[in-house]
Amino acid sequence: MGYSHRGLYVALRLIFRVLISISLVNIIFFTIPWVRIIKGLRILGVPSLIISIIYMTYRYIFFFANLAEDIFLAKKSRTIEFSYKREYSFIGSAIGLLFVKAKMLSEEIWQGMVSRGFSKNFCPVKREKYKAKDFLPVIIEVLLIGALIWIDRRFYLNW
Questions:
Q1: Which end of the chain is less packed: N or C, by CB atoms within 10 Å?
Q2: Could you read off the pLDDT of 15-27 as tens digits, one per residue?
Q3: Local structure of 24: helix, strand or coil
Q4: Measured between alpha carbons, how far is 9 from 156 in angstroms, rounded to an integer?
Q5: Whole-model pTM above 0.85?
């Protein structure tokens, strides 16, 4: 079985769309501080509950990544001889330990939030004035998306 030019075109278009989406997300996260992203979501009218879930998920990811790194570093510093069987069982127990710690931490955080009178209104920082340089990543992203749509239309109409 072979491939057709149309199928190759569709596959390449899908790959390029995924790459552009990933690059746009990276542009956002590497050029804009996390607090400003949260603030931007708030200005766009995203519900407070969704913003608080995103904010806490972001913090959890880095907390558990550091915890997993500490667990593996502790294991590596205590290991003298290497055995695949022992390593596989360690990975399973480390994953189980992370799940147990995640459950315990989520219960503690929820109890702390309830005891401090958690409300649904979530706004981590006060609103600031925007400058011209703040809109540069947005303009670049809009231009990239426009170029992708233009290229897509141009090549699609030629088929």
A1: N
A2: 888 888 888 888 8
A3: helix
A4: 9
A5: no
